[in-house]
Write a structure and sequence with these properties.
By secondary structure, the protein is mostly helical. The protein has 26 helices and 7 strands. It comes from Sphingomonas pokkalii.
Length: about 600
């Protein structure tokens, strides 16, 4: 009788229990990361810039004005290609907490709590997918896998990770749930709205959204009964994207750019949605005719894109060859998985591989049941995500998330086969224990790949400098000098403007490309050329952080360049040393233009 009560409770109230797991995860994260919250430790440049965007909104900057005026203010600042969507929960939390905690503390806790909000949606979407495809009682296994094995996915929801990736992953989780929804219209609406929401935030998951649409198209080609699903998907994709553009596209994103939901991609999404609706309304009886029409529709979209938007056929960032060679091509997350250290690549590859194997096993196991179509969709999606890792590692969080239904199915099928008998609670308990161990194993604890790849000489010194140079307590010492524009490293710019009252020249954002190249030219070129570049940006001070990773690039490109001379102590007389506290990781000079 007890077994039936547990079964009924886990089945009927699965969402409540899922949210309880989420709440426990939130509590653990907030306690475990309270030091980061206290010191406002925003570890990524994008997180720092996101906070500056929220601050500007709360200070009265226009809804559609996403220009960052404290970055390169002499030239009017520069536009951020994001949207306001992800700013809203952070700003809302600040306003909610401010009367109780004060402005500064409210900001810290908002940055701690906000990334955990989309985790609830991700957990709900994952549980829903597993309930539909594996078993109504298998969702605890999927959640345990998410918490213990996803070394790339879970950090996207950690406190202080306030950039948009967590929200896009939440949309991806709901997309998968929609793909396997037995109710066609509801499933199509979920996939269409989730894709529109994700693309209104940013284009990072555009390949995943395109694959979801292709899978729905293939379902209709195979089964004309999927007509309603495809119609609703096309309407919600086009309509949702249009609403997202109208509500959230910044002034700068209303130009014909290729790096965000601009008129370029809005046209593509609306046209694609309209064509899918037209195909489904025609709904010819022949499977081969449906395939031919789907291929024709795809060809029309591609041909239209080539004809109307040729500027987007190359790099979507539309950066110069020099900027791509010297900066964008060296971004670590843009490299394929096999170009990363094994301690990073192997855990990701293990989860993705197990997910693919499990999904294929589940397709075979469900081949005579209605679930076979849903599993075929998930298997296609999982295969696509695993292949994306061979292109860029930034696909890793999505690939791991998509692997979880397949791994859950593998456990659910394998454990009863191993036990042969036993009550439900024992089966679930053993599965959780086994795959908690797998999670620790995949994360590298005491494994052969736990020993890091052979370190380059000085890598530990670089790592320590990266930490020290972005530390809040160190940066705050710079407020002892009057507010000014400080010429410093590109990667230090966003953190500088968050923690201090100073402005910076550049940040690692492709629309800031001219300023990025100016910083690179200033540090790698001759000393005599520096002042002209600094004067163009009206910089009052020069700040360097010796051994920060970016500085190794300067020295490698030109061992005789300006930065290399500064590192050797060869300081020109037009730089006036500004004393700093003992132990400071920085070197600071006032730039004298009158000498």
């Amino acid at each position: 009788m007890r077994g039936f009560r547990v079964r009924d409770e886990f089945d009927r109230h699965w969402l409540g229990w899922t949210l309880l797991v989420w709440a426990c995860t939130v509590a653990w994260f907030l306690v475990q990361r309270q030091g980061n919250i206290y010191w406002l430790t925003l570890g990524d440049t994008d997180d720092n810039m996101r906070l500056m965007q929220v601050r500007a909104l709360l200070a009265g900057q226009g809804w559609y004005d996403l220009r960052q005026y404290r970055m390169d203010p002499a030239l009017g600042g520069f536009d951020i290609h994001w949207s306001r969507i992800v700013d809203l929960p952070i700003a809302g939390l600040i306003l909610l907490l401010k009367p109780f905690l004060g402005a500064a503390t409210a900001e810290k806790w908002a940055c701690g709590i906000a990334p955990l909000l989309p985790l609830s949606i991700t957990m709900a979407g994952l549980s829903l997918t597993v309930r539909r495809l594996v078993s109504p009682l298998a969702w605890p296994i999927a959640l345990a896998l998410l918490l213990f094995t996803c070394t790339a996915t879970l950090p996207m929801y950690a406190p202080m990770r306030i950039d948009h990736h967590g929200w896009q992953l939440a949309a991806l989780a709901m997309t998968v749930a929609g793909l396997c929804d037995p109710k066609g219209a509801r499933g199509g609406a979920v996939v269409g709205l989730a894709s529109a929401f994700s693309l209104s935030i940013g284009l990072e998951l555009l390949p995943f959204c395109a694959m979801a649409g292709a899978i729905l198209g293939l379902r209709w080609v195979w089964d004309a009964g999927e007509r309603r699903r495809l119609i609703v998907y096309g309407l919600t994709l086009g309509g949702g994207s249009a609403i997202g553009f109208a509500l959230f596209a910044s002034n700068a994103n209303q130009a014909m750019r290729c790096d965000a939901l601009t008129p370029v991609w809005l046209s593509v999404l609306v046209a694609a949605g309209a064509l899918l609706v037209a195909l489904a309304l025609a709904n010819p009886g022949s499977r081969w005719l449906r395939l031919a029409l789907a291929a024709l529709a795809g060809g029309l979209i591609v041909a239209g894109f080539v004809h109307f938007f040729p500027q987007c056929l190359g790099r979507p960032e539309q950066v110069s060859d020099e900027l791509y060679t010297t900066w964008l091509s060296n971004v670590r997350e843009a490299r394929p998985i096999y170009r990363h250290p094994r301690e990073t690549a192997i855990p990701i590859a293990i989860v993705a591989s197990l997910g693919l194997i499990g999904a294929l096993l589940a397709v075979w196991h469900a081949r005579r049941t209605p679930r076979r179509i849903g599993w075929a969709a998930v298997a296609l999606f999982t295969t696509f995500a695993a292949a994306m890792l061979l292109w860029q590692l930034r696909a890793a969080p999505g690939a791991q998330l998509l692997a979880l239904p397949g791994i859950t199915a593998m456990i659910w099928l394998a454990v009863p086969w191993l036990l042969r008998r036993g009550p439900l609670w024992l089966r679930i308990g053993i599965a959780l224990l086994v795959f908690a161990g797998v999670g620790i194993w995949a994360s590298g604890a005491k494994m052969p790949w736990a020993a890091k790849s052979t370190a380059r000489p000085g890598s530990d010194r670089v790592r320590q400098a990266n930490i020290a140079c972005t530390r809040t307590s160190q940066l705050r010492t710079l407020d002892a000098i009057p507010a000014a524009t400080i010429f410093t490293h590109v990667d230090l710019g966003p953190r500088l403007i968050v923690v201090t009252h100073h402005n910076a020249v550049a940040g690692p954002y492709h629309r800031n490309g001219t300023a990025i190249l100016d910083v690179h030219h200033a540090f790698t070129g001759p000393a005599a050329a520096f002042r002209a570049i600094a004067a163009r940006h009206r910089a009052g001070y020069l700040l360097i952080c010796p051994n920060m990773s970016e500085t190794t690039v300067y020295r490698a490109r030109n061992p005789q360049g300006f930065y290399a001379q500064l590192a050797k102590g060869q300081v020109p007389d037009w730089l006036e040393t500004v004393p700093l506290a003992d132990g400071s990781p920085y070197r600071l000079w006032k730039i004298r233009y009158d000498r």
